[in-house]
Amino acid sequence: MHIPDGFLDAKVWVPAWAIACGATAVCSRKSGRALGERKIPLMGVTAAFVFAAQMLNFPIAGGTSGHLLGGAVAATLLGPCAGFLVITVVLGVQCFVFQDGGLTTLGANIVNMALAGTAGVYPIIFLSARISKRTGIVLGAAIAGWVSVVGASLLCALELALSRKAPLAALVYAMAGVHSVIGIGEAVITGFFVSFLLRVRPDLVLGNDG
Length: 210
Known about the structure:
This protein has a single domain, classed as Arp2/3 complex 21 kDa subunit ARPC3 (Orthogonal Bundle). The chain is 71% helix and 3% strand. It has 8 helices and 2 strands. It has helices at 10-34, 39-54, 71-78, 80-98, 106-116, 122-131, 135-162, 168-200, and strands spanning 57-59, 65-67. The protein is globular.
């Protein structure tokens, strides 16, 4: 899902960069006010976890593979703004150090995976937690994990279609088909991880930290 350089027209990646920069500025300001001293180290630990988890691939039918996006995990632990910043840092490191995704398309990757795939799915977690503090959070995080992957893939398909790489219908069919399966893995991993944290360190999960 990391879009390389050369796949997006300037009319797509320039506005995407503008949206990404604006979202980063807003989330930085809001996170600075909302996070306490205990949450700042958690941002670093979460970034390290997501970065390491994204290195692990699991096979999908047809010879393709998928990996954890981690947006729902970050949103569950840190909230939408700090979670956005964590995924943005991970994407930046992957781009500049490992050449995973292009520099011109980094803004689009941030919009897809950090803005839509992390901050955008937080309402699912929040509303589910209102129903039940434990079961609701786990279920909401799992659903948010699936939505984050499929939603990010659909945005990617739209950006590629606007760049005239292929018809939108064909891109949606290809991207959503594969990533709906990848999203199941994301949902299972996210649900188990959040459930484990609620048993051993519930204070790390947003809404249970007092």
